[in-house]
Amino acid sequence: YPKLFRAADTKKRGVLGAQEAAQFLSSSKLPRKTLHDIWCLADSDNKGNLTIDEYTIACRLVAHAQNGAGEMTEDLLTVPPVKLPVFEGVQTETPPAPPTSTRHSTDDVADEVIAEEYANGIDLSSPVWRISRKHLEKYTEVFKAISTSGFVCGADARDLLIKSNLTSEVLTTIWDLADAGRDGQLSYPEFLVAMHLVTMARAGYSIPRS
């Protein structure tokens, strides 16, 4: 993002004026409404320019929008974009992935189970649906705190899902996708699916119905 900021800061002032920022962000080829929402979130104090930190926020939101996120919300800032934003005429590179380990931990196996058995129609060719290590650790911690005998009962899962403030329709869809065993409770892999779908829904991504 600092590289992108330097490319946009043609006057070398350390901040981007509204015209400079608008011109650069428009090269993302996103709809004007989306760019307006991104600007409002980045320039939260309405001062009419962007510092490098605020420009970084804008770029992250651009990346999410280009990767299929719907409404631009602050929740998107808690989810790292899967790719750097693309701006016409500016070359960016996705950072190389860290070396993978040959060790197969319980978490690794759970991740594979999600990818292979619990997708239920989700297009996993898009890396946005892959659970990051950071989120996996967070979901696992919650599971350990509320599970009994390796499962989260329906009542406990419902109470947790309701706290997301998502609509009943979305939560019902998430439950149907996660409860692959149709037994009214969530195993560890099923719980991971439910939690990640909640995270993505709150970030503005559309959840498939089947």
Explained architecture:
With 210 residues, this protein is mainly alpha-helical. The chain has two domains: 78 residues, Recoverin, domain 1 (Orthogonal Bundle), CATH 1.10.238.10; 71 residues, Orthogonal Bundle (Recoverin, domain 1). 49% of the residues lie in helices and 5% in strands. It has nine helices and four strands; from the N terminus they run H-E-H-H-E-H-H-H-E-H-H-E-H. The strands form two sheets. Strands 1-2 form a two-stranded antiparallel sheet. The chain has a two-stranded antiparallel sheet with strand order 3-4. Helix 3 packs antiparallel against helix 4, helix 5 crosses helix 9 and helix 8 packs antiparallel against helix 9. The longest helix is centred in the N-terminal third of the chain and has 15 residues. 30% of the residues are buried. About 15% of the residues have low confidence.
